[in-house]
């Protein structure tokens, strides 16, 4: 389905995300990869990527989605957000010529995943929202081949394309950048509500297993952790995994300090105290804050050293100690 329309002003409007860009003929929208070609929105990066990589699924991060398995990861160019702290600005903000990218049709990606024994294909590095058609066609072929799919995304998407997109995704890590509208406007050139709507839809109305990530930037969004956890509990329940990761100085936030582990630990303890059952710290972590605990007996059922599993006490999707079903895909 083509998510575009002709407006009353006889302009073509992209309807993938809330921006609703109306690029002039031969011009691109905000993401710089969706272009008006002869009155139609065309994805210029279809079939192009910035490289394929094999990662542990934990690196996405997905901790309760086939833990310990390999993922074939890829992304393209462009982004529909304007995050001043972007951690991947070399491909999302810099207008790299497409001919400098690698090429891989959806069929090639699926075949590569099979050849290297990857359980999943992950759409990551930049937001798959902007390479919607490429991600969707690849996901369809993955499903036919028995390969799982993961979207690593900001969730800044319109409801109709979200239905098709999440209907094809087996897992997703959605980046909730801050639980504050002003933060989104000032630092991301976006809005919070569409992200929350996407998260609620994906969790409540699809079979896609969702984990959330918030990258904490000291003095910018770490003061909203309680509000975020309260919203999660009231709208999603207590069993959606939540990851807190550390910011490193990049892009327009190059002069900001790196996030300290103590900031992540404080957020971790807050979320656990408020009742969230699956909470993690990411790129700064300890064995305690990276472990998965049974929400019934409280024992560590998956232990990790960084992204590596050191112990797995899940059997048939249940806690080996008490038999409680563990939320996730195993």
Summary of the model, kept short:
With 330 residues, the chain is an alpha/beta fold.
Structure, described:
- The chain has 330 residues and is of the alpha/beta class.
- The protein has two domains: 45-277, Alpha-Beta Barrel (TIM Barrel); 291-330, no CATH class.
- Helices cover 27% and strands 23% of the residues.
- Helix 4 crosses helix 6 (192-205).
- It is globular.
- The model has no long low-confidence stretch (mean pLDDT 97).
Key traits:
3-stranded antiparallel beta sheet; 330 residues; single chain; 8-stranded mixed beta sheet; 9 helices; alpha/beta; 2 domains; TIM Barrel
* Average of per-residue pLDDT values: 97
> What CATH first level of the largest domain would be assigned?
Alpha Beta
Q: How many structural units, i.e. domains?
A: 2
What class would the helix/strand composition place it in? alpha/beta
Shape: globular
Number of strands: 19
- Uncertain segments are none
Fraction in beta strands: 15-25%
Q: Strands across the major sheet, in which order?
A: 6-7-9-10-11-12-13-14
CATH H-level superfamily of the largest domain: Aldolase class I
User: Helical amount among residues, as a percent range?
Assistant: 25-40%
Q: C-alpha Rg, in Å?
A: 19 Å
């Amino acid at each position: 389905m083509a998510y575009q329309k002709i407006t009353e002003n006889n302009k073509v409007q992209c309807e993938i995300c809330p921006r609703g860009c109306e690029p002039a003929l031969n011009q691109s929208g905000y993401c710089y990869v969706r272009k008006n070609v002869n009155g139609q929105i065309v994805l210029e990066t279809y079939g192009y990527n910035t490289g394929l990589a094999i990662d542990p699924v934990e690196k996405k991060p997905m901790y309760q989605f086939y833990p310990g398995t390999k993922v074939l990861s890829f992304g393209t160019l462009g982004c529909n957000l304007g995050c001043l702290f972007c951690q991947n600005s070399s491909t999302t903000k810099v207008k790299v010529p497409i001919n400098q990218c690698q090429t891989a049709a959806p069929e090639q990606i699926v075949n590569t995943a099979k050849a290297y024994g990857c359980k999943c294909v992950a759409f990551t590095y930049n937001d798959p929202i902007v390479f919607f058609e490429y991600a969707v066609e690849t996901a369809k072929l993955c499903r036919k081949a028995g390969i799982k799919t993961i979207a690593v995304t900001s969730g800044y998407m319109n409801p109709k394309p979200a239905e098709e997109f999440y209907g094809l995704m087996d897992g997703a890590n959605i980046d909730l950048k801050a639980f504050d509208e002003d933060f989104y406007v000032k630092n991301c050139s976006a809005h919070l509500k569409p992200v929350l709507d996407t998260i609620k839809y994906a969790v409540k109305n699809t079979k896609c297993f969702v984990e959330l990530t918030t990258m904490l930037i000291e003095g910018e969004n770490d003061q909203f952790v309680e509000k975020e956890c309260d919203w999660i509990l009231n709208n999603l329940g207590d069993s959606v995994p939540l990851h807190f990761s550390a910011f490193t100085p990049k892009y327009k936030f190059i002069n900001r300090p790196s996030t300290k582990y103590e900031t992540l630990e404080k957020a971790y303890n807050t979320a656990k105290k408020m009742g969230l059952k699956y909470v993690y710290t990411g790129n700064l972590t300890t064995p305690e804050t990276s472990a998965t605990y049974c929400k019934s007996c409280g024992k560590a059922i998956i232990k990790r050293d960084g992204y590596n599993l050191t112990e797995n006490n899940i059997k048939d999707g249940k806690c080996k100690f008490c038999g409680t079903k563990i939320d996730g895909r195993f």
